[in-house]
């Protein structure tokens, strides 16, 4: 019999954002973005608990008002993984799922596939897992806001980049590009290790925190999905999200 893992979802939530300040508190068809994300995570039924983790008074108050479980960060953090590591340090959990607060359209089947890797034959070698989706549009491929990932033959991540990866020097070769979707499932220890390891050169250059795991030899299992998320990085993304939500509720 396979062991029952204790799984929690954590939504790191900063108020400030360089490209779109206050985006998590923007109205998304009657509810703030962070509430939409929290409710979507809860509605999957995949987690023992769902928490918002924030250092913002505004987000903390809003989460309290709509009935969300919310944890106030005690320290200043440079990235979401550090914020989550502090939050789960004393929790009795096995797997911590990082749900991006600015991606309110959560796909339950994709999350189920992500969590299932921790029950597979190679589960003991997996430190964390994440999602990837095939992309073909040239603008998506070249957009630096879309992080690209390449993997080995066993779907373990080799590298992440904002640059088109791989570079198509040989145009006769049909290459599939994969966009990284920033939903992670961590073993608790991998998350705590990340918190105690300093940032190195590659992560600093790309500004992609999951590169730190690779630089320190952690194994990241990538799971392919067909899920097309709407990450809210700009006001234009918010308008797209409003239209998508309106059409899906009709």
Automatic annotation (TrEMBL):
Family: Belongs to the KdsB family.
Pfam family, one: CTP_transf_3
Claim: Magnesium is one of the keywords in the record: no
The protein's role, per its UniProt record: Activates KDO (a required 8-carbon sugar) for incorporation into bacterial lipopolysaccharide in Gram-negative bacteria.
EC number: 2.7.7.38
Assigned keywords, A-Z: Cytoplasm, Lipopolysaccharide biosynthesis, Nucleotidyltransferase, Transferase
GO biological process: CMP-keto-3-deoxy-D-manno-octulosonic acid biosynthetic process; lipopolysaccharide biosynthetic process
Protein's name according to its UniProt entry: 3-deoxy-manno-octulosonate cytidylyltransferase
Heme as UniProt keyword: no
Major localisation: cytoplasm
NCBIfam families noted in UniProt: kdsB, PRK05450.1-3, PRK05450.1-5, PRK13368.1
GO cellular component: cytosol
Pathway participation: Nucleotide-sugar biosynthesis; CMP-3-deoxy-D-manno-octulosonate biosynthesis; CMP-3-deoxy-D-manno-octulosonate from 3-deoxy-D-manno-octulosonate and CTP: step 1/1; Bacterial outer membrane biogenesis; lipopolysaccharide biosynthesis
Cell compartment(s), UniProt: Cytoplasm
Any GO molecular function: 3-deoxy-manno-octulosonate cytidylyltransferase activity
Matching InterPro entries: Cytidylyl_trans (IPR003329), KdsB (IPR004528), Nucleotide-diphossugar_trans (IPR029044)
Catalytic activity entry: 3-deoxy-alpha-D-manno-oct-2-ulosonate + CTP = CMP-3-deoxy-beta-D-manno-octulosonate + diphosphate
């Amino acid at each position: 019999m396979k062991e029952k893992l204790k799984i929690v979802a954590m939504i790191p939530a900063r108020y400030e954002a360089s490209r779109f300040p206050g985006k998590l508190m923007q109205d998304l068809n009657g509810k703030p973005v962070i509430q939409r994300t929290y409710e979507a995570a809860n509605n999957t039924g995949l987690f023992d608990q769902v928490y918002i983790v924030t250092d913002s008074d505004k987000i903390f108050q809003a989460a309290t008002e709509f009935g969300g479980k919310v944890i106030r960060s005690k320290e200043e953090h440079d990235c979401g993984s550090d914020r989550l590591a502090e939050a789960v340090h004393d929790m009795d959990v096995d797997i911590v799922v990082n749900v991006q607060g600015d991606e309110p359209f959560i796909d339950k089947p994709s999350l189920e596939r992500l969590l299932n890797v921790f029950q597979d034959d190679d589960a003991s070698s997996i430190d964390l897992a994440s999602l990837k989706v095939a992309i073909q549009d040239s603008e998506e491929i070249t957009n630096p806001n879309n992080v690209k990932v390449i993997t080995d033959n066993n779907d373990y991540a080799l590298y992440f980049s904002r640059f088109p990866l791989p570079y198509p020097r040989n145009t006769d070769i049909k290459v599939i590009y994969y966009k990284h979707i920033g939903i992670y499932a961590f073993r608790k220890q991998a998350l705590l290790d990340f918190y105690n390891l300093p940032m190195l050169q590659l992560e600093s250059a790309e500004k992609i925190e999951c590169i730190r795991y690779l630089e320190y030899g952690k194994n990241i299992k990538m799971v392919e999905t067909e899920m097309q998320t709407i990450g809210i990085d700009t006001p234009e993304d918010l308008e797209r999200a409003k239209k998508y939500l309106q059409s899906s509720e009709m």
